[in-house]
Structure formats: structure tokens, C-alpha cells
């Protein structure tokens, strides 16, 4: 029953690839938003728990916000994704039954590397975000905590999915705040952001389906 929404979401995610560099429009926003709405429906139909359903649904709202132009929609999208990560944290910790700091025991090298990446954003990201500096800082802490929460789980699809989500956001941050509109890698970065993001979300969903 949950397979049909997953297939629908994957089909729309493929349809969005040619639109990654297109000008904002409501059809483009709809195509970008549908995949995570479909994933959320799949999680709901499979009774995978409220926090995972909420994380996927809030991610769809984040996609809608980031598909539009302007600082207002960007902050809306950033806030929705921050809430999605909080939902994922609750879901991952609920599944693992472990506190967040257990990540430093179960996967110490990766956990320390993740914290180092979070700290490094003060050098290569925060100073380039202008008046969005504090919202971006808060978001970095929350997504980092999501990654640590995933590391409390046994290594599997969910952990890989969370890692791909973080990679996607790192590329997005570089694309938004460190690349000019005419940068020769900007189009490739847009494709990479969407590919890592959809793969990450799909694997988080798949990990939930696998129990």
C-alpha cells in the first residue's frame, strides 16, 4: 500500500531535475514539493510513527519555501527543515533508545568529524550569510544534532540517508552563499543538492520501512 506513494515521489523527484536551475514558478514549486509529501504519505500508511511522518511532511514544506524567491520564503523553508530535523532526532533516538551523546561511543570518528564540520561553518559559511547569520547558525546546530542522533542507530540505510542529507545541505550552503550566480559549477551544484537530498530522504524512509 505504501509502495505507490514512494514510486510517485521518486517519479516527481526525477521530473524536478531539469527544473533545478529554472526560475521560480508555482508549477516548479509543486513538482519540488510532491516527492516529500508522497514519502510522508507512505510513512503514514506504513504506520512508521508520528515523528518520521512529521519529519518528511515538514521537509515538504521546507522544499516549498526554498523553491520561492526572497528572504521570507527562505526563512520559512529553513524553519520547516529545522523542525523536520528535530522530528528526525526524536524518531532516531526513539528507535535507538539511546541518548544523543552515545554517538561518540558508537561511531566516535564520524561523530567527531561531524562536530568539526559544524564548527568549521563559522569560518567558511557564517561570515558570508549576512543578516541570516543566526538562523543559519541555529540550523547548523540542529542538523548536526540530527546526524549525531542517526549515529546512535546501527549502521544501515537510515544512517546513510542522514549522511546524504547533511552532504546535500553542505553543497546547498556553498551554492547559496559562496558561489556567484555565474559560477561555472552552479548548475552542477544544483543537481548534486537535489540528488543527495532525495537519496537521503528516500533512504531515511526506506530505513524506517525496514525497521
UniProtKB/TrEMBL annotation:
Keywords: Membrane, Transmembrane, Transmembrane helix. GO terms for molecular function: hydrolase activity. InterPro entries: TMEM86B-like (IPR012506). It is found in: Membrane. The keyword Membrane applies. It is a multi-pass membrane protein. It comes from the Bacteria. Its main location: membrane. Pfam families: YhhN. GO terms for cellular component: membrane. The chain crosses the membrane at residues 38-62, 74-93, 105-124, 136-153, 159-177, 189-209. Belongs to the TMEM86 family. This is Uncharacterized membrane protein YhhN. It comes from Aliiroseovarius sediminilitoris.
Amino acid at each position: 500500500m505504501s509502495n505507490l506513494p514512494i514510486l510517485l515521489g521518486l517519479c516527481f523527484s526525477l521530473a524536478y531535475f531539469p527544473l533545478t536551475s529554472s526560475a521560480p514558478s508555482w508549477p516548479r514549486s509543486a513538482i519540488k514539493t510532491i516527492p516529500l509529501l508522497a514519502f510522508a504519505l507512505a510513512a503514514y500508511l506504513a504506520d512508521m510513527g508520528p515523528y518520521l511522518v512529521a519529519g518528511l511532511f515538514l521537509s515538504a514544506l521546507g522544499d516549498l519555501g526554498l523553491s520561492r524567491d526572497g528572504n521570507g520564503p527562505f526563512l520559512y523553508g529553513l524553519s520547516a527543515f529545522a523542525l523536520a530535523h528535530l522530528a528526525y532526532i526524536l524518531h532516531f533516538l526513539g528507535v535507538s533508545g539511546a541518548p544523543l551523546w552515545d554517538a561518540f561511543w558508537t561511531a566516535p570518528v564520524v561523530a567527531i568529524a561531524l562536530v568539526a564540520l559544524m564548527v568549521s561553518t563559522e569560518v567558511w559559511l557564517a561570515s558570508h550569510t549576512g543578516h541570516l547569520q543566526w538562523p543559519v547558525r541555529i540550523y547548523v546546530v540542529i542538523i548536526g544534532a540530527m546526524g549525531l542522533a542517526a549515529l546512535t542507530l546501527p549502521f544501515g540505510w537510515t544512517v546513510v540517508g542522514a549522511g546524504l542529507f547533511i552532504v546535500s545541505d553542505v553543497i546547498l550552503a556553498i551554492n547559496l552563499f559562496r558561489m556567484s550566480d555565474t559560477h561555472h559549477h552552479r548548475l552542477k551544484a544544483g543537481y548534486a543538492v537535489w540528488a543527495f537530498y532525495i537519496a537521503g530522504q528516500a533512504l531515511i524512509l526506506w530505513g524506517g520501512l525496514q525497521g
